[in-house]
């Protein structure tokens, strides 16, 4: 399986001004660098929690549909009411037994946006299609994440600002008595509450 970003977020959950205010940075000479740190902090948060913060379109590729017709497909980076879940499932496509790419109609499946993780299941009396035995035979395209930074949880924003401030002060892989690669315990405590395994 693989997960590919087709459309990256158009903004970040924290602005450069917000990050600078938290880090007490008054100069504008490092604005570009701080902006890059914000993106890096958001990407790290998403990787640790398996959640998408700001709206983005993803392609999730599988070698085939589940063998059991009632077994769901769990979607990475989506799920639960704590953060916005699936905004839209754009399409489900697959390579049929003849080698042709087909699009599975939306009436054939249901998206459960409340479970953790979110999942796709066949509609009542419908079974998963049969695919050709090739890699990446199935592609699910869906959009996840908050549509605006204003609706991102404040604890998430705080974690990102803390990470940015930590990295800004410690630009090398290691420092005196502390490693820049290590996430501070207070920041990790904020991040942990949004992990899937902490919410199940």
Description:
This protein is an alpha+beta fold and 200 residues long. The chain has two domains: 2-53 and 149-199, no CATH class; 56-144, no CATH class. It is 28% helix and 22% strand. The protein is built from five helices and eight strands, in the order E-H-H-E-E-E-E-E-E-E-H-H-H. The protein has helices spanning 16-23, 31-49, 154-169, 185-192, 196-199; strands at residues 2-7, 56-62, 73-74, 86-95, 101-103, 109-112, 119-122, 138-144. A five-stranded antiparallel beta sheet has the order 1-2-8-4-5, with no helix packed on it. The protein has a three-stranded antiparallel beta sheet with strand order 3-7-6, with no helix packed on it. Helix 1 packs across helix 3 (154-169), helix 2 (31-49) packs across helix 3 and helix 3 packs antiparallel against helix 4 (185-192). The radius of gyration is 20 Å and the shape is elongated.
């Amino acid at each position: 399986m693989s997960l590919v970003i087709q459309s990256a977020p158009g903004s970040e959950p924290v602005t450069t001004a917000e990050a600078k205010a938290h880090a007490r940075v008054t100069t504008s000479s490092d604005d570009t660098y701080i902006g890059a740190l914000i993106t890096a902090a958001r990407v790290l948060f998403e990787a640790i929690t398996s959640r998408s913060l700001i709206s983005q379109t993803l392609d999730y590729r599988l070698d085939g549909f589940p063998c059991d017709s009632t077994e769901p497909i769990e979607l990475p980076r989506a799920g639960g009411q704590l953060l916005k879940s699936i905004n839209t499932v754009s399409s489900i496509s697959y390579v049929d037994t003849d080698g042709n790419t087909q699009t599975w109609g939306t009436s054939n499946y249901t998206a459960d946006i409340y479970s953790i993780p979110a999942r796709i299941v066949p509609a009542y009396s419908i079974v998963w299609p049969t695919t050709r035995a090739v890699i990446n035979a199935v592609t699910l395209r869906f959009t996840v994440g908050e549509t605006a930074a204003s609706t991102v949880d404040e604890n998430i924003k705080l974690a990102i600002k803390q990470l940015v401030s930590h990295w800004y002060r410690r630009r090398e892989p290691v420092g005196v008595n502390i490693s820049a690669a290590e996430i501070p315990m207070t920041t990790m405590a904020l991040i942990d509450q949004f992990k899937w395994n902490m919410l199940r």
